[in-house]
Design a protein that fits this description.
The protein is mainly α. It has seven helices and no strands. It has one domain.
């Protein structure tokens, strides 16, 4: 395996971006829900909110991947493929996003100036792993390879 293959880096970047979009939808939805709907919980139990956000982020990522793969693979195989994605990648992405949010925003809270840093951390954390997985095993987060 070569770590210098530009084509695999590009493919893995696209895959990582799609995973980031899916994870961000659920993650930020839960954080926003607590921030605006139950701010006392968000303030007093930020780790609980972030754990729920990570769970929702992984769920929406699996849903997005299933939708992306549906036409290509059919529903059953698309869902199996999405569920078979790397949990290491998704957990790394979610953890990186939430750590940045926690330290820059001071808790489980969405702040506009923090979002680009969250997304950057969420993208960069799993990208090398996604490259390795694609290069070594031919397995992709978001598209059947």
């Amino acid at each position: 395996m070569k770590w210098t293959d530009g084509q695999i880096w590009r493919r893995s970047a696209i895959n990582t971006l799609w995973c980031l979009i899916g994870c961000s939808i659920g993650d930020m939805g839960v954080i926003a829900g607590f921030q605006f709907g139950a701010p006392e919980v968000a303030a007093s139990r930020p780790m609980l909110v972030m754990a729920l956000a990570m769970t929702a982020g992984i769920g929406t990522s699996v849903l997005l991947e299933t939708i992306l793969l549906f036409k290509q693979l059919g529903l059953a195989k698309a869902l199996r493929t999405a569920l078979g994605m790397s949990m290491i990648s998704m957990l790394g992405m979610e953890a990186a996003m939430n750590v940045v949010d926690y330290f820059l925003a001071g808790g489980a809270r969405l702040t506009l100036w923090v979002l680009p840093f969250m997304w950057l951390a969420g993208f960069l954390a799993p990208w090398p792993y996604n490259y390795w997985r694609l290069a070594k095993h031919g397995k992709s987060c978001c598209h059947a390879e």
